[in-house]
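User: what does the whole thing look like in 3D?
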Amino acid sequence: MTFEMFLQMFPIALMFSAPIILTALGGLFSERSGIVNIALEGIMMVGAFTGATVTVLLEGSNPAAAWYGLLAGLAAGLVFSILHAVASINLKADQVISGTALNILAGGLTVYLCQIIFHQQRTRAFSNGIQKFSVPFLSDIPVLGRMFFKEIYPTFYIAIVAVFLTWFVVYKTPLGLRMRSCGEHPQAAASMGINVYRMRYFGVLVSGALGGLGGAVMVLTADIQYTLVSIHGTGFISLASLVFGRWNPFGVMWAGLFFGFSTALSFYAKDIPLLKSLPGEFFYIIPYLFTIVALIFFAGKSVGPKAAGEIYDSGKR
Amino acid sequence: MTKRKEKIVLPLIAVFLGFILGSLIVILTGRSPLAMYAAIVKGFSGIDIMYGQPLNSRYIGEFIIQSMPIILTGLAFAFAQRTGLFSIGAEGQLMVGSLAATAVALLVRAPKVIHLPMVMLAAILAGALWGAIPGLLKAKFRVHEVVVTIMMNYIALHLNNFTILNIFGSVDRVKTAPFPETALLKSPFLESITRNSRLNWGFIPVIIALLIFSFIINKTTFGYSLRAVGYNKEAARYAGMKVDRNIISSMAIAGAFAGLAGAVITVGTFNFGRALPAAEGYGFDGIAVALVGGNEASGILLAGMLFGGLKAAQPLMQSQGIPREIAGIIQASIVLFVAMKYGIKMVLDRFEKKQAPTTEGDRV
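Assistant: Here's the predicted 3D structure for the full assembly of 681 residues, as structure tokens:
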């Protein structure tokens, strides 16, 4: 691989990393508050559908349509995740079942609405998604400028800001401490006067917002329209990043970058002598395989939130 | 409400609410729910209420075809669930089953009596192996099976595509060469009695699988110890049951059911191996089937037929101007309502309590 190719890969890898990181951070909020969220895939689909639809509908009249698309995706993900919150927090549904239901629902609902709005199985193609840009001055720095500041989607910076914000909220504020305590030992948290239900609602709704944003980011940077396969498992890759990143915002960022690069590499592999003989499918498998290996490696060490996935029973000791 | 009654009443309420919600969405988007129900009736029987067509066995054949694989993936989810395990992996197990079936169908030359059973067996073994891996990781390393099975679904998808495209070869990048007759479940007889539907002998392994499921779970010591692990792992361990081994066997048997589903699709519905752009959702359908069917063989059979019929009705809905995805929406809502059973129970209990004083009054 030439150095030039390595530099070329950066913008593409960062483009793929952004939605993974955003959505995985969403998963972090939910799981840290004690609610397992395998609905991330479905939430991304809803966000992507809404983002693409709003962009298509506004783009004739508004030059910033794609940005409204991002906001709409965020809002739609948040609203959609309320279903998961009500089911798993109030109605004590099994979180995996509720998440599965949301994943199936998202696939049906988004394509159903496409048929109603656009009379086809997908949204109409938008002419402009989020545009690439170069940061003034910084993009002139040799090498580093090419890697991180030239012809980059601004969504990557949004993802990085979200990483720092998440770290700050989760580890440096009373709110974050309370939320984490609900994921570790909700009964103990409740005994200290923390409203477990409210904290968990906060976690799930933030995960919906970030997942929806992630979905919108993905469709508005890497695609031209929303289809049933626009997200194709990225929500699950985000879940993998959450595990691989050990439920920690910076870990999630590195995992998201790593998986973003492995996706980008699948496009460049045919030009790299060492990787040429490997089939494209090999690169698709990497995130999933690494996650299983990571899980085995973490085995026995308590890295994830202890009470995640358990139905909250306030009477339990 | 007794436990038994609950097991029947709650899924029925969930199904009812799911259809109500589906109808509401149809109404809100300006379509007619009556046309949807007419399509569903036609999907099950061929009877056309709107244009007055009689029962048509072709539609019955097609709806059975749709039900077969999801009954099997339902059994797969339910079997693991009875041991307290959450296997989201039927999708992947089905794909490796289908891949193994493709391999044996294409590579082996033998008379039908040998070839067809070999195809089935290969699919079952492949599915079992794919299922045993998360079981092993759970037993040995305490790795949670939900995440592992999700990841293995995607590994199976890409493994399937890689093998189909690069090893078996595909002209159009979609499907392999057609299988020889000897590997197929196809039956001219069944096709002729159902007016050329795709109905095939696949329903026989499905019935056998249902019986085996019921037999293992209810009638064997092994099944009892599996259930014991599901109820309380520590108690089962204390009673001397081999918990780890049970977890692995349970996941492997669950995988075997899903693997068989792969064969039923590949050499039954189709007659070639396929590269897939994305998972087809049979595994998730199976979760819905198992949940609505209460993880019991009889319930799974009925729920499988319900959702199979819904699937068969999809093209009919589309031709009535109702987007076919409404079937998926109804199915997902039913699952969501089953998951919310605690809430439904609360409402029912409140309702019963309100009535309770009057019945007591009658007695006095």
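In plain terms: The mean pLDDT of chain B is 90. Chain B touches chain A through 47 residues (CB under 8 Å).
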